[in-house]
Amino acid sequence: MASLEALVVTILWSSSYVIIKLGLEEVPPLLFSGLRYSVASVVLIGFVLSQGRYRKQIVSKEKTWWGIIAVYGVIFVAFTQGAHYVALSLLPAITESMLLNLTPVIVLLMGIIFLDETPTKGQLLLIFIGLVGILIYFFPLNLPLVQVIGLFVAIGELVANALSSLLGRKINRDCIDHPVVITSLSMGIGSVVLLLSGIILEGMVPISPISLVYILWLAIINTAFAFTLWNRAMRVLRAVDVSLINSTMLPQIVVLSVLFLGEMPDILDWVGLVLFALSIALIQISQAKRKGAVKD
Q1: 226-285 pLDDT, tens per residue?
Q2: DSSP assignment letter at 206
Q3: Residue 60: left if φ>0, alpha if ψ -120 to 50, beta else—which one?
Q4: I need a surface site. Which of 44, 155, 277, 293 has the fewest CB within 10 A?
């Protein structure tokens, strides 16, 4: 049951790419993402405050703790999600998803510096195969200027996402607080920064009924509900199971983008995508097994 719940969450998250691309036709990226995460954080914070056991975890927290949560929120929501929406406004969904899926590789490499974790020879080989897949996907490199800009934005998103992953791992490892408390509060802080940035840089635009549906669906279903369901599944699933389920997202996004966005990779693109997806999946699985072995 937990595996099915986690798979449902990945489908919801994958569908976000399609919904975001459709919503970006009317709402600018920073404002769109700011509205989504502001609504989602209100829902999650409301849930946290309604639970006595969670309220107790918030009371009497030191300034240092709030500072760490604020930094995490700004990196995880304001920077990462803001860049995610901007990149999707400039790049095809498949391309943006492929670049974002490099996160495990960046985390693995950053782990050498920050966590004193050395990749195995097998992981280094998989990284090489993944990079070959990327080169095949982008060959020949002849992109319009708007997509070149999108690539730089996506790289910034990738770095921010990797940093937030490392910081999130450290926070969850060092704190006894429930993940929903950390996520809701950090999202609340980050979403305010993101929404204000959107209003200042892009201005307010009229929100049509369909755009409102997109925002509310992404906020309530694909964020608040999906996170709650995912968190429940994580209590049962092994790290290897989680990695396997996570690795299905890129294929899901590719299929959804072909069906609903009209994106159509050519033969060379498919070869690159398959090589890349397999290498990233195997890297995630090997990391999960390695962590499991350390815990044992």
Answers
A1: 988 888 787 777 766 777 788 889 999 999 999 999 999 999 999 999 999 999 888 888
A2: -
A3: left
A4: 293
**Nearest Cα to Cα of residue 54 among 173, 171, 180, 224:** 180
Alpha helices, H only, the chain: 2-23, 29-49, 52-58, 63-73, 80-90, 93-100, 103-114, 121-138, 145-174, 179-202, 209-216, 226-234, 239-246, 249-260, 267-295
CB-count burial class (<10 Å; 0-12, 13-18, 19+) for 17: buried
pTM for this one?
A: 0.91
* CA dihedral sign, ordered 60, 47, 184, 82: negative
Instruction: Give the DSSP letter of residue 225.
Output: I
Task: Specify whether the backbone of 178 is left (phi greater than 0), alpha (psi in -120 to 50) or beta.
Answer: beta
Query: What 3 state SS string does 83-112 have?
Result: HHHHHHHHCCHHHHHHHHCCHHHHHHHHHH
* Encoded tokens for 40: 């989602």
